[in-house]
Amino acid sequence: MLSLNDLRQFKQQGRKFSCLTCYDASMARIMEVAEVDTILIGDSLGMTIQGHDSTLPVTVDDMAYHTAAVRRANQHAFILTDLPFMSYATLNDALQNSKKVMQVGAQMVKLEGGAWLSEIVQVLTRNGIPVCVHLGLTPQSVHVFGGYKLQAKTREAADQLIADCKAVVEAGAAALLLECVPAQLGKEITELFPNTPVIGIGAGVDTDGQVLVVQDMLGLTMGRVAKFVRNFMKEQSGETAILDAIKAYHQAVQDQSFPSKEQTFQVEL
Ligand code: KIV
Fold it and tell me: pTM of the full predicted structure?
């Protein structure tokens, strides 16, 4: 089973790592065979599995249920699990809710926010819970942003996001996840923290890892998908098409053919 140390080593070696969301045992087993490096039990399951129009209704029990199912079927990937909306608003909630997902197989929890999470990050880390902080477009705050939009489009906003990253890394964050930010900022932040793996989704090709929602990269999402998504199913056919699409994604992350310019936000900062 891959560990946080493996992710740190990948970063030091310049070996890019793959991450996909996963919520069930069948897909987790396919990802094990495809040797996907990391799995995110994302609260995106509120939309992809439960049919809500945002991640807000998801509960900690939902996250624990799906984490347990994935862990049982996949003994290879490093697993991180989202703490859902309002489940880490107090230190005690953060501790109790992290405990629930760590006890069923998560190796790290992911929280959305910035510098204001520093105390929570510190306390969780001291209690043996590695934390990934998700910055940029943070879907739990969709009603604050007024939609799912590119973040940190100006130098000033980019510097604010860098300051948030510095604060949470200083507090002990073991990983960062950047969503929907200019590629230049993804590169700057990845280079700024030599010991902290940075995962990107719509953050350019230079982050240490890439993540996509599995339904998006398999072409199962009806309607509009984000610019940063590539449909890896399009290139496949036959009985093993899903496995082959996931293998192709893992390979494309490693050889950096994904994300290409088409799937990247190019903004000069
Ligand atoms: O919940 C999720 O799937 C996520 C990804 C979009 C990064 O947080």
Answer: 0.98
